[in-house]
Amino acid sequence: MKKRTPITRQDFWKGIVAAVLALVILVVLNFTNSQISGSGKDASSYSTTSTEAASAEGAEGSYIPGEYTASELGFGGPVELTMTVGEAGGIETVKLTGDAETPEVGGAALETLQQQILDAQGPEIDGVSGASLTSGAAKAAAEKACAAARGEEVAEAATPADGALFVPGTYEASDKGFGGDINVAVTVTDNEITEVKIEGDHETENIGSFAVEMLDDRIMEAQSPNVDALTGATVTSNAILRAVKSAFTQAGADLSKFPAAQEEEAGEKTDETLDCDVVIVGAGGAGMTAAINLTQAGKNVILVERMPYVGGNTTKATGGMNAAETHYQAEQGIEDSVEQFIEDTMKGGHEINNKDLVTVMAENSAAGIDWLDSIGAPLPKVSFSGGATNARIHAPEDGSGVGAYLVTRFRQQLDKLGINVLYETRATHILMEDGKAAGIQAEGKTANYTINAGAVILATGGFGNNEEMIVKYKPDLKGTVTTSAPGIMGDGIVMAEEVGADLVDMDQIQLHPTVEQATSMLITESVRGDGAILVNQEGKRFINELLTRDVVSAGELEQTGSYAYIIFDQRLREGLKAIEKYVSTGITVQADTIEGLAEQIGVDPATLADTLNTWNTYVANQKDEDFGRDTGMENDLSQAPYYAIKIAPGIHHTMGGVKIDTSAEVISKEGEPIPGLFAAGEVTGGVHGGNRIGGNAVADIVVFGRVAADSAEKYLDAQ
Ligand code: ADP
Fold first, then answer.
1. Nearest atom of ligand 1 to the alpha carbon of 682
2. How far apart are CA 499 and CA 356, in angstroms?
3. Would you place residue 128 in the very low, low, confident or very high pLDDT band (cuts 50, 70, 90)?
4. Based on the number of CB atoms within 10 Å of its own CB, is 43 exposed (0-12), middle (13-18) or buried (19 or more)?
5. Using CA of residue 642, residue 648, residue 651, residue 655, what is the dihedral sign?
6. What distance in Å separates the CA atoms of residue 477 and residue 511, rounded to the nearest whole number?
7. Which of 24-28, 198-202, 447-451, 591-595 is predicted with the least confidence, judged by mean pLDDT?
8. For helices 402-416 and 696-718, what crossing angle results, to 10°?
9. Which one, out of 103, 208, 225, 423, has a CA that is 20 to 30 A from the CA of 233?
10. Are 339 and 363 in contact (CB under 8 A)?
11. Which numbered atom of ligand 1 lies nearest the CA of 442?
């Protein structure tokens, strides 16, 4: 993947100069086709050339009588405002339209927003919670229209020359992404987009950051802002696309003239045949680990990835990697043992794990940590984590999420080693020859591939995103949202089954208890760990919030509506970086009082206030008299504002999968290894049993990614 050139200060100034030039040209030409127009008595005087306009004053009210229109980009397209100012100078009518807004969110908010503008007699409105983009557009449009109605000079939009799409120049715009502002600078000639620069340093590493990296090329290629959002990174993508549309609007473009997003054309693909030593399916943690190890061992690999980017569910891992008897533990005086690691994992997995696999994971975990050191991905910070007897979870020094941290470093290795990654290429079948795995078939965007290989490693992750499979193996989870990445569809399991592989523990599916349902965003365990509580719709606590994931999830499912609210305060927000994302995404509700918060979530205010007071007393006494919670009680919840997020259980990890032996060889229904076929990571079953403990997913991918690579190498050398 290419490196981004940041938008420099110089570029920004160039843009501003270009924009000013464009404006001057317009003023001289006195174009009429403006985005902001006034058609009242003094309509002609509202143009930017007017000298009268600057001195015009409203009659009794603040505005000059007449009709004014203005338009701003909302969530899906323009939000248009028309307002009339009466003879007395007050706003008499406001009409907002926004056909491209989501009907049940932004669309539904338009009427309230109209009323707010009318009531405020101007743009000083509260907006509608949950429809922040539409609200922002309505407010901005009202600002423009009111400025025009006050007779203020308003910058007119550019109008392209006849037959041109744009007024040439560089235009900038910003929009709110997932983690902060996204800035774009778009350079256009009369009819061509010549450059798109996107800057969004605060987007989630290896998720939103991919949209920042990739959408410029897509827009350039399509010569249109109507390109698909990057799957899995829609918030960032939509912010980028809105900013680009806004820049185009400044350039005078008529957005309706751009082609719609292209449907993929079927039937135009070529057939290609490729050869390699090992084909690895899936570029998540396990697949990349295997690819790097095999390349380091001198094997020629092809890594096939269904998505346009690497990382899978691995990117989302936040905690760390469990490992025992590591040099970091020794250096920090932490006593731990491989035996204890095995015992904790078996206990956490309700003793149904395959103990041989658990032993391989525990025994090779310290070597996994050493290997990560060797590729510049050290995990030196060791701490306690749920289900572990000793401090065993290894995390990055700087406190960043382990998944994104590792994926960045794995990507660097892929680049450094020149590993061939076929993106947007979905493996569909395993090729068998004389009873041995001999390659795969895969479907790319422009080609269908036959990839011949001496060995195949499946590293396709779990099946959390495949509802049909979820329901097949665990019918009661029908309709449950998932935290899984978009490519996690169970493909590896289906392909392996097709060539006779056995499957294990398929009904063992881990729920995470705090998942926001509209966005499927996982609210990290640290929020409860730092002191948040869960309440039901009746405003009451119902469980020790820090019991294991399965128990808390089951507790939630017993409540009214099968959901709960996670409640925290300002002190907790300030102590936990992750919360800013929840706030900026708009999934939190907040209020200055507990009663105010209760009203917003439809809970009885007195009951919620009572619940919090009681909880705060328990914290003060360090004794939870209702549910016996004894952790995450360092701080009470008493610092306004107060926050709530509505949550319910979500599918988090599928513990079952393809059966493997201790060499990561795939085992057939007859109990024999399938020659040449290996699997590692979430696609396999048996390591985690009935419940995966935190820190073991990363241990699994690193250890078994390396084991699979090692076994494939030995297998090839023995042929
Ligand atoms: P693990 O943690 O086991 O490494 P991840 O979820 O991190 O699993 O990664 C699995 C990767 O496999 C994802 O990037 C996913 O998009 C990819 N993948 C899934 N199915 C296919 C397929 N049929 N072809 C290619 N890649 C796939």
1. 3
2. 24
3. confident
4. middle
5. positive
6. 9
7. 24-28
8. 30
9. 103
10. no
11. 24
- 678 C-alpha to ligand 1 centroid (Å): 14
Give the N- to C-terminal CA distance of the chain in Å, as an integer. 35
* Predicted local confidence at residue 40, as pLDDT: 39
> Helices 355-363 & 365-374, crossing angle to 10 degrees?
40
Percent of the chain with pLDDT over 70: 90
**Two structure tokens written together for 350:** 């309700």
Percentage of the chain beyond pLDDT 90 is 69
Which residues contact ligand 1 via a Cβ below 6 A? 281-287, 304-307, 311-314, 426-427, 459-461, 485, 487-489, 491, 681-683, 701
How far is ligand 1, taken at its centre, from the CA of residue 464, in Å?
11
Which domains does the chain possess? Answer: 53-149 (3.90.1010.20), 169-254 (3.90.1010.20), 299-508+655-718 (3.50.50.60), 511-650 (3.90.700.10)
pLDDT band per the 50, 70, 90 thresholds, residue 717:
very high
| Cα dihedral across residues 331, 332, 334, 336: positive or negative | negative
* Residue carrying the six token digits 């490693």: 457
502 Cβ contact list (under 8 Å, min separation 6): 658, 659, 667, 668, 669, 671
- Does residue 681 surpass a pLDDT of 70? yes
Strand partners, 78: 73
Residue bearing the bigger pLDDT, 1 or 538: 538
The Cα–Cα gap between 108 and 105 comes to: 5
Rounded to an integer, what is the distance from CA 678 to the centroid of its chain?
Answer: 30
Which mutation among 303, 460, 484, 654 tests ligand 1's pocket best, with the greatest number of atoms within 8 A of CB?
A: 460
- Which residues is 67 bridged to in the sheet? 84
Nearest atom, ligand 1, residue 680 CA: 3
Calculate how far, in angstroms, residue 660's C-alpha sits from the geometric centre of ligand 1.
17
489 CA from centroid of ligand 1 (Å): 8
What sections of 401-548 are H helices per DSSP? 402-416, 467-473, 491-498, 525-529
Does residue 381 surpass a pLDDT of 90? Answer: yes
> pLDDT averaged over the chain?
88
Q: Rounded CA gap, 655 and 513, in Å?
A: 16
Written as six digits, the tokens of 231 are 């799957």
**CA angle (153 as vertex; 147, 159 as ends), nearest 5:** 105
Burial of 558 (0-12, 13-18, 19+ CB in 10 A): exposed
What are the backbone dihedrals phi and psi of residue 361, each rounded to the nearest 5 degrees, phi first?
Answer: -60, -45
Show which residues are catalytic.
549
pLDDT at 154: 67
Q: How far apart are CA 613 and CA 530, in angstroms?
A: 18
pLDDT higher than threshold 70 for residue 53: no
435 CA to centre of ligand 1 in angstroms: 25
**Which SS3 state, helix, strand or coil, does residue 624 take?**
coil
Pick the atom of ligand 1 nearest to 426's CA. Answer: 24
Cα 344 to Cα 230, 358, 505, 668, 715: the distances in Å are: 39, 10, 19, 29, 33
* pLDDT for position 97: 93
Q: Whose CA is nearest to atom 15 of ligand 1?
A: 487
- Measured distance CA(631)–CA(392) in Å, rounded: 19
Among the listed residues 167, 130, 133, 144, the one whose alpha carbon sits nearest the alpha carbon of residue 241? 133
Q: Is the peptide bond before 641 cis (omega within 30 degrees of 0)?
A: yes
CA nearest ligand 1 atom 9, residue = 284
* Ligand 1 pocket, mutate which of 231, 305, 660 (most atoms under 8 A from CB): 305
Copy the structure tokens of residue 648: 């319910």
